[in-house]
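Dear colleagues,

I hope this message finds you well. In preparation for our joint manuscript, I am sending the Sulfite oxidase (Flagellimonas algicola) sequence together with its predicted structure, so that both groups work from identical material. I would be grateful if you could confirm receipt.
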Amino acid sequence: MDRRKFLGKSMLGTLAGTLGFEIVFANKLPSNYLPLFLQDQDPFKLFGKDKEMVVLNNKPWNMEAQAHLLNDKVTPNKYMFIRNNGIIPTNIDTSQWTLTIDGESVQTQKQFSLQDLKIKFGQHTYQLTLECGGNGRSEFDPPAKGNQWTIGAVSSAQWTGVRLRDVLESVGLKSDAVYIGYHAADNHLSGDPNKEPISRGVPISKALQDETLLAFQMNGEDIPLAHGYPLRLVCGGWPASASGKWVNRISVRNKVHDGAKMGGSSYRVPCENVSPGTKVEDENMCIIESMPVKSLITYPKSGALIKANRKLNINGHAWAGELQVTQVEYSIDFGSTWVTCKLEQPVNRLAWQHFSATISFPKKGYYEVWAKATDQNGKSQPMVLPGWNPKGYLNNACHRIAIKVV
Ligand SMILES: Nc1nc2c(c(=O)[nH]1)N[C@H]1C(S)=C(S)[C@@H](COP(=O)(O)O)O[C@H]1N2
Ligand SMILES: [Mo]
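The corresponding structure tokens are as follows:
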């Protein structure tokens, strides 16, 4: 495919806008000319990411953070992972963008412009934690195919938009509505316009939660292009694949949504635990819903040196899908004994929580600091890999960092 053909001038303006600068003589650009900043395809520049982010794939673009980059309480764009299943849409004209609500279970199909959404419905802001279902995949054995995420496919940004519930209620749902599915403007890697790269959804009960948003802002600004500009569904606490980027249609379904990547082994795990390497039949696979309890030590960076007799302050975040985290503990003796950390309340439901502790080490030498979170139902993170599954989802094993006391 020749990218140049896709780049209309209005889109260049939009793209430059979301990157935070203006192409001053955009109206003088020869037609079919691709500006250098798009030609070089430096993903860090292109997406406004920090140089320490790690690129896992360039077709499609997938990029993750390292633990120490995620130390901010609210994740800024530059440290936010990117997970794409297809090609990022480029021909975005916000004045023409529409959201269609359709499906078997709406009273009447309806279309909204972005402006309609912004003026007809109340706007709400929540900090929402989004973790890719495959975060941690790289540790599974036998290995699972897919992006080899280590720990960095998680973010907790502030999202502003309208409630999906308000929009659905204004359209009217039939009593048989059980699920919603999103459709979006990104393109399938094959270039086939009839194929969607991904079209997932959530049960109606999740769709109607206060915090489920059709968002048009992230961290107080237009959503960056790579994260779903100009409109994104955000379903915090669930695998981030449920949060459709570049959303232009929501279908209200009378059955479990059957869009791309809803079936087979996509975002599904064996309903019962299986031994590693087992082949699992489709009917024994269950859709991932709320994500499991997990935590990340974001300060210091693994490998830090500290002087003997000095105390070490650690910081991090913990989250538990739909649930609250009630305890975080640390261990410096490989999990033999645990000490409770200071834990903050979330700023709102579905936002991650911050923990900290001050650690003393008995003598010089090599240590690891392990962190373990527990959710409100009393479930804790496993110290080693949890249940193997064909696509390597839901690895919530304890995070650990290396420390040398010198
Ligand atoms: N339209 C669309 N929405 C999408 C995706 C995609 O490829 N296309 N990827 C999903 C997956 S698998 C994840 S983990 C999150 C990643 O969100 P982020 O790139 O903003 O971090 O977006 C989800 N929404
Ligand atoms: Mo994902």
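For the figure legend, we might mention the following. The two ends are 56 Å apart (CA to CA). The pocket of molybdenum atom (ligand 2) is lined by residues 83, 132-134, 240-241 (CB under 6 Å).

With kind regards,
E.M.
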